[in-house]
Amino acid sequence: MNPIFAEIVPEKSRTSIYALDRSFETILSSFAPTVVGILAQNVYGYKPIPKGSSTSAEIETDRQNAASLAKALYTAIGIPAAICCFIYSFLYCTYPRDREHARMYALIESEMQNIEADNSLSD
Prior knowledge:
By secondary structure, the chain is mostly helical. The chain has one domain. The protein has helices at about 1-10, 15-30, 30-45, 55-120. The relative contact order is 0.10. One of its GO terms (cellular component) is membrane. It is found in: Membrane.
């Protein structure tokens, strides 16, 4: 994503856009452990090992809990990855137009600076 930002975001705004992207991603990812725990317990049936249970019952419960955690992790990773894939696919469709717009904006800005420099030299 950073190479796209480097081409379509004006140079003076890049630092802010990079920081916004990183902070947004970090904030969303901070909820991942909680989401995995909730999914494992409420959706996929994670259960604590009952006290006083036999070794074979503990092993079976551990296997079921491991499967519950695996499913929760897969869900917590798979769904956001699919959403990102969809959003990035959209961005790649609009990228050529955005890149040309950014280049034109940069060219206009540099021409304006040249005109201002010429005017200040002639004064």
